[in-house]
Amino acid sequence: MESWVSVPKVELHAHLNGSIRDSTLLELARTLGEKGTIVFSEVEHVIRKNDRSLKEVFKLFDLIHILTTDHSTLTRITKEVVEDFASENVIYLELRTTPKKNDSIEMTKRSYMDAVIKGLRAITAVDVDFGCHDMESKGSTNLQPINDVNNLSPRKKIYVRLLLSIDRRESTASAMETVKLALEMQELGVVGIDLSGNPVIGEWVTFLPALVFAREQGFRITLHCGEVLNPKEVHAMLDFHPERMGHVCFFNEEHWKRLKTYKIPVEICLTSNIMTETISSVDVHHFADLYKEKHPLVLCTDDSGVFSTSLSKEYSLAASSFGIGKEEMLRLAKSAVEFIFSGEEVKRELREIFDSTMKELR
Ligand code: 6MZ
């Protein structure tokens, strides 16, 4: 398979706690095992396992959250996850996470997010622009464009923006709290709201008031949609007309028609859909039809840790499965710039990076 590591890429659907390195999870599990909080031998095989049903994935998230939900660990995983994306030339990342409360360790949704921001500030290996308006956010003051040809060893630069996720287990009040937190943190790079979590749990009407409020406040919204058969919910989500949708697997004729008419960009997660058996194999994935019809699409990882993937691997998989050449794939990668939740200035800079890569290829 061709390597897609060197190609600039945009990642718009990545869950923080799903993107942790296995080595870090095992280290955290070992430490909690030594403290007697968990039994390491019972969780080791769960972390190492590769193929998981959708149900098992959500069980694994419960375990991951036991391992990671303290402030210093959150800071560490945020730093590592962003470094990993930057190392494979992801130039713009919208990282999503569910702010969590844990009274026993005095964690509030705000302190959870502060720990995430601390992780962004702790990155030194690459330059991080996370849209924060104070000087500290720019990391190194020695900012270099990623592809500055006059510099022999330019530092990599990654734009990181945050989406706050509402978990489908949450109440309306809790979802509303997340949106209010997003408002408080707009200056710290929060650009949108996501609805995610176990798709068999929760009702659309529970989250709708918070999503309507988020929209009124100017946030862009992405919804996990159609991960299980639930035509009524898909219908209601399409009525809401979000700025993007993730997965869109269980759609009927009417849903496809509306999605295409509205031109809602779709976050495609090939490996995730196949591993969780939401889609039976890559050759019957709806990517093929949407791509053929020039529907707005973006390739994403979903949970690179949980599904042992990377954005480069997703590009390889799409290119080889659907017979797409390098230049065409680059065009697909570039098109994602139009669906990001950041403003025009960032879009312009990203387009320039893609244009110069395309020139080099010719
Ligand atoms: C739905 C998913 C997901 O928020 O703790 N999440 N929700 N479908 C998926 N596809 C398999 N993958 C991840 O990251 C982990 C959380 O993201 C959501 C789940 O709510 C999971 O608990 P954070 O950083």
UniProtKB/TrEMBL annotation:
GO terms for molecular function: adenosine deaminase activity; metal ion binding. It comes from the Eukaryota. Pfam families: A_deaminase. The keyword 4Fe-4S does not apply. Keywords: Hydrolase, Metal-binding, Nucleotide metabolism, Zinc. The keyword Metal-binding applies. GO terms for biological process: adenosine catabolic process; inosine biosynthetic process; nucleotide metabolic process. Its cofactor is Zn(2+). InterPro entries: A_deaminase_dom, Ado/ade_deaminase, Metal_Hydrolase. Residues 8-353 form the Adenosine deaminase domain. It catalyses: N(6)-methyl-AMP + H2O + H(+) = IMP + methylamine. Belongs to the metallo-dependent hydrolases superfamily. Adenosine and AMP deaminases family. This is Adenosine deaminase-like protein. It comes from Punica granatum. The gene is LOC116209459.
